[in-house]
UniProtKB/TrEMBL annotation:
Organism: Globodera pallida (Potato cyst nematode worm)
Any GO MF annotation of the entry: UDP phosphatase activity
Signal peptide: 1-18
Keywords, ordered alphabetically: Calcium, Hydrolase, Metal-binding, Signal
Binding positions for Ca(2+) per the UniProt entry: 97, 166
Cofactor: Ca(2+)
PANTHER family: APYRASE, SOLUBLE CALCIUM-ACTIVATED NUCLEOTIDASE 1
Family membership noted in the UniProt record: Belongs to the apyrase family.
A Pfam family this chain is assigned to: Apyrase
Name of the molecule in the record: VDE domain-containing protein
GO biological process, one term: proteoglycan biosynthetic process
Domain of life: Eukaryota
Length: 187
């Protein structure tokens, strides 16, 4: 399960005040205790939120500076990996929208939509890449254009129609990907 936490609010990990989920996936108890601690990254800017992913790490993607920081032991943030857009050979930072863990690797996905001009003309497929990151920080840039297009076609959309994905999740139980679009249009 991914959890988005805004600013400096953090829940107690694995403590008495945490989510209890049954094997069927039903939430049976939710109780939060918040811990506030100002964490600063020594790079001169802040992040709007952090995400905790299945590996237990807190992180986020900052598309303006192309790097993904990581929090260790709830004590400090440090730059971890640099993520560039598309195939990784461009100067623009990657705008990560979702994270999940599959086979001990962190997957960071983008919008899942072609990059277009304001008039709708195709510029590139860079937001349709997924970054696959090993625990040691090795980044592989994987072209998911075919997968994003197949997902969009499954619900009856084709270019210039689009789906922008807010959430992507791999399920070990179902051995499938699950996506939740943020917005979509047929034209």
């Amino acid at each position: 399960m991914n959890l988005l936490i805004a600013l400096t609010a953090f829940a107690a990990p694995g403590g008495a005040h945490s989510w209890v989920i049954t094997p069927s996936g039903v939430v049976t108890h939710v109780d939060w205790t918040w811990y506030y601690k100002a964490l600063r990254l020594k790079v001169g800017f802040s992040f709007p939120g952090y995400m905790i992913h299945e590996s237990g790490q807190w992180s986020d993607v900052h598309e303006k500076w192309f790097f993904m920081p990581r929090m260790d032991n709830f004590t400090h943030m440090e730059p971890w990996v640099f993520l560039k857009d598309g195939p990784g050979n461009v100067t623009k930072g990657f705008k990560g929208e979702w994270m999940t863990v599959r086979e001990n690797k962190l997957y960071v996905g983008g919008l899942g939509k072609e990059w277009t001009t304001p008039n709708g003309d195709l510029l590139n497929y860079n937001p349709m890449y997924v970054k696959v990151i090993t625990p040691s920080g090795v980044v592989t840039h994987v072209d998911w254009t075919w997968y994003y297009k197949a997902l969009r076609l499954k619900v009856g959309f084709s270019f210039p129609g689009y789906m922008i994905h807010e959430s992507g999740q791999w399920s070990d139980v179902h051995e499938k990907w699950f996506f939740m679009p943020r917005s979509q249009t047929k034209n």
